[in-house]
Design brief:
With 774 residues, the protein is of the alpha+beta class. Helix content is 35%, strand content 20%. The protein binds 2-acetamido-2-deoxy-beta-D-glucopyranose. The site of 2-acetamido-2-deoxy-beta-D-glucopyranose (NAG) has 7 residues, from strand 7 and strand 9. Pathway: Glycan metabolism; N-glycan degradation.
Length: 774
């Protein structure tokens, strides 16, 4: 791909020089004016040709892969222990393997008596209002156990894999349905997938009626719709009228192949079904029945033992219940790992329209199985801290997949919407990814964190060392892309790209920073500089130094940038306000903004809410937006332990009228003008006061760091660390007990979970806080 495009470019260049060359070969005498005219035309042609050639070249850069060895070398059957898995995090229970065109298996269900108002359950959906669901144990390799509560039914889904053989081995999935209040409740269970490889073995309970069909579904994103279309009502002696699956008329069309085989089972609870998938080339038969029950019990015990060995939560004094919640959090993070395959839609300033990225796989965790069941770049860095703690194999593979998505420019699209199932869940306006858009380099920092904490797994000639070696040029390209593309106007300053004023937003969003609506300069401009990004660049340079050092490569360039960005005097010149004693962004700013309702000129136009600017903006530090970004020089450990400014930050950190709440640090100070303000008529506050766990994790981790490095602020840092951690862990666990979920964010007012649920992405980092490991 790359080579082809490069040679295209060369062809165009040589064509143009040929053209101008042939005109000068003409030796016939001619009048000067003609010569000038010809020369001008020649030069013009040359310019146009070069321009078009360059344009074509620039146009293709956005979707040209980085040239070099792929970081992922082993995939598919060459990673047998992770071949099959629950890699469809967006459905309640589904399995597939790590191949681009894997068959998919999955479960749907409905309650016979309530079918009309509750509908069929399939995709994890907040509107299903399930009191709770999620993996309570999952090791990422061979076994998992999930509980789903859908009153009056409880469903337990488990699976055990037997890897090996030439075709990926066996697996058995068990679906165990019980009723809470009344026994013998009729329940409809649907299993779909490829019929010839699975056997359904009812293990316990009564199977009242079965129907199935060979069908053709137009795509993975329409399975439930297809299912509905197959249902036909029949008379049944016991149930009166019963919806059963009938034949698919679409198959009359010879072009359409069978790709969807749903089996509907009307059962009486309690009911236990074993779904046995077998490739029959293993010496051991697949598990089922009592044998499965026995092995499941062993898997549970050994998982629990290993979890305690790794995190030592009981040893640290946490109760059995709290430790079980931590276990469920980590399990749902691991159980949320998906395998996606497809193309993103991307755009650069040189492409007239969005173009497809190259087709690629992505093995990644997801922030939320219901709301964000796909990969997000900066989230994945945070996820990796916990996933990598459980299994470096899994995390190195995830990071490698992400790094293989880097293009020749050094850019990685920040949101990955791969495949029709993923695409169906994203509003159109968010699908296209711009190559000007960054997202914090947390993944780079996570990799360096792993290198620091576990140097032994990166020893010479080890598997992870080789992977890290292949990652290195990609990491370096990504890092350089940041330094160049997000550079600010002043030396050593940085600016997030992608802010746009539209006259509607109270404060134009900075989606790329990850902190969406966190207030920045009111009037986006090129003079802007962002303190959080400058600190990310420090941490990135530090991470590159760590990684290069491990690989025994030249660290000097990375160290030079790290030391420059770590120079406190430079940082203070750009971002410190001695007026408010805080760090802040700089830009064209006024606090005089508000949302007002504007009435249209004609009644038909109606009215809309727009932004009104009541006092003109000035170039200044945006000190009124005190909050998370003001803490970044501490959060990312830019400040030296002896720093006077660190002292100032720690001094006010526990002020309840600013950022401290009994539930963790709030994102924006109560004193800030935009605290908990809507951004538009339709946009409620998001990063304007709510407590977010990823940033709190950075805070807890930084406090621990400063507590351990000595210096005048160590005692204060230690004390804040203990209190902040207790607040966070206490509230997350208490909300889980109350609501059955981990949440996207928590209210700074009463600690209540808000945003989407379950959000077992970075919220699950409280497990590392409990373990006291950062
Ligand atoms: C099914 O689930 C119930 C309730 O969790 C449990 O008591 C029972 O042992 C399970 N049965 C099997 C065969 O796994």
């Amino acid at each position: 791909m790359v080579k082809h495009r490069k040679s295209n470019l060369q062809v165009k260049h040589s064509n143009t020089s040929d053209a101008s060359g042939s005109s000068s070969e003409n030796t016939k005498p001619r009048s000067p004016i003609v010569t000038v005219w010809k020369t001008t035309l020649g030069v013009l042609c040359l310019i146009i040709a070069v321009y078009i050639g360059t344009l074509g070249y620039l146009e293709t850069r956005v979707n040209t892969p980085f040239d070099g060895d792929k970081a992922v070398q082993d995939s598919g059957l060459s990673v047998p222990d992770r071949y099959w898995g629950t890699y469809r995090p967006g459905v309640y229970f589904g399995l597939k393997n790590r191949e681009p065109r894997s068959p998919v298996f999955g479960m749907m269900w409905y309650e016979l008596a309530a079918a009309t108002h509750k509908g069929i359950r399939h995709w994890c959906d907040q509107n299903d209002n399930l009191p709770s669901y999620g993996w309570i144990r999952h090791d990422g390799f061979t076994f998992g156990e999930q509980t789903i509560s859908d009153p009056p039914h409880n469903i337990v889904t488990t699976f055990i894999k037997t890897p090996g053989g030439e075709h990926g081995g066996h697996w058995t999935a068990r679906i165990n349905v019980t009723s809470v209040d009344k026994l013998n409740a009729a329940f409809v269970l649907i299993w779909y997938g490829a019929l010839d490889e699975v056997h359904l073995v009812p293990h316990q309970g009564k199977l009242l009626h079965t129907s199935y069909a060979d069908a053709h579904a137009p795509g993975l994103h329409l399975l439930k719709e297809k299912y509905y279309s197959l249902l036909k009502v029949e008379k049944h002696p016991a149930f009166g009228r019963l919806a059963v699956i009938g034949g698919d008329d679409e198959l009359n069309d010879k072009e359409k192949e069978v790709n969807f085989v749903p089996i509907q089972m009307l059962v009486e609870t309690p009911f236990v079904l074993d779904v046995v998938y077998t490739t029959e080339d293993l010496p051991t038969p697949p598990l089922k029945g009592e044998e499965y029950t026995k092995v499941l019990e062993q898997k549970r015990t050994s998982f629990d033992t290993r979890f305690e060995e790794e995190f030592k939560l009981k040893e640290k004094g946490y109760t059995e219940t709290d430790a079980a919640i931590a276990k469920a959090a980590m399990s749902n993070m691991i159980g949320g790992i998906g395998y996606f395959y497809g193309t993103s839609r991307v755009q650069s300033r040189y492409t007239r329209e969005p173009v497809p990225y190259w087709k690629a796989p992505l093995y990644t965790g997801v922030p939320s199985r219901s709301f964000f069941p796909r990969g997000f770049l900066w989230d994945e860095g945070f996820h990796g801290l916990l996933i990598g703690r459980w299994s470096p194999d899994i995390q190195m593979d995830i990071a490698a997949h992400w790094l293989d998505l880097i293009n020749v420019e050094g850019w990685i699209p920040r949101e990955q919407i791969l495949g029709s199932e993923a695409l169906a869940r994203v509003p159109k306006e968010f699908v296209v990814q711009s190559n000007a858009a960054a997202n914090p380099p947390m993944l780079l920092i996570q990799i360096a964190n792993m290198v620091k904490r576990r140097p032994h797994i990166f020893q010479r000639d080890s598997k992870h060392r080789r992977t890290l070696d292949r990652m290195f040029p990609r990491l370096q390209a990504w890092y350089n892309w940041f330094l160049n593309s997000q550079k600010g106007a002043e030396p050593t300053s940085y600016r997030w790209r992608g802010r746009e004023e539209d006259g509607l937003q109270l404060n134009p969003k900075t989606l790329t920073s990850g902190l969406d609506d966190y207030p920045r300069a009111s009037h986006p401009s090129n003079i802007e500089r962002h303190v959080d990004l400058r600190c990310w660049m420090y941490a990135a340079a530090d991470a590159m130094t760590t990684i290069a050092d491990m690989l025994q490569r030249d660290t000097s360039k990375f160290e030079a940038i790290r030391d420059q960005l770590g120079d406190e005097e430079l940082l203070n010149e750009l971002h410190w306000s001695s007026h408010t004693n805080t760090y802040a962004d700089y830009g064209l700013h006024t606090d005089g903004v508000k949302l007002v309702r504007q009435v249209g000129k004609t009644p038909a136009e109606g009215s809309k809410v727009v932004r009104s600017v009541t006092s003109p903006p000035q170039e200044k530090l945006v000190t009124s937006a005190f909050g998370y970004i003001s803490l970044f020089p501490m959060l990312l450990k830019v400040l030296k332990p002896s720093s006077e400014k660190l002292g100032k930050i720690l001094e006010v950190l526990d002020k309840p009228e600013l950022l401290w709440s009994p539930y963790g640090l709030r994102s924006l100070s109560k004193s800030a003008p935009l605290y908990m303000k809507r951004n538009t008529e339709h946009d409620p506050p998001y990063w304007r006061g709510q407590v977010w766990i990823n940033i709190n994790y950075l805070a807890v981790s930084a406090l621990k760091h400063y507590a351990g490095t000595g210096g005048p602020h160590a005692a204060r840092a230690q004390q804040l660390h203990t209190r902040l951690k207790a607040n966070l862990v206490g509230n997350i666990i208490s909300q889980y007990k109350k609501t059955g979920y981990l949440w996207e964010q928590y209210s700074d007012q009463d600690g209540r979970g808000s945003g989407c649920k379950p959000f077992t992405g970075w919220t699950a980092l409280f497990v590392l806080m409990m373990a006291d490991e950062y």
